[in-house]
What we know:
With 155 residues, the protein is of the alpha+beta class.
Amino acid sequence: xxxxxxxxALLVLLSCQLFGQSADVRRKQFNLSKSGxxxxxxxxxxxxxxxxxxxxxxxxxxxxxxxxxxxxxxxNRDAFAANPxxxxxxxxxWCAYAMGAKGEKVEVDPETFKIVNGKLYLFYNSFFNNTLxxxxxxxxxxxxxxxQSWTKFIR
Length: 155
């Protein structure tokens, strides 16, 4: 009986360490602002509800597996908390086009986005280079490449 309890205690300890590492890995892989926020503080749920990029409020936030998000209102925060995977941006919030074209992590403009099959994709848009336009020209191939490239980062 003592060995079973010791074994269970060891398993609980190891699983806690694994979950802690998972959050650390996610933080390292996600595109976080200098203040540690996902999507530069924009509300991930607002993209789906209003089809607009809306900045979240400092006083309404939540963390999911080590990544902090801000929200425009408590209803959006609660919707996110109920189903984070539905609202999180693809590829850790990095530019979908760059992930698909070169397998690279490139910063984004949170106001340049697209929702495809219920998933949020963000894009670089600066200096006359809106990568969303390039993505739209070859979305199927780029998405397939991006999906494969992203798996290399999250191993």
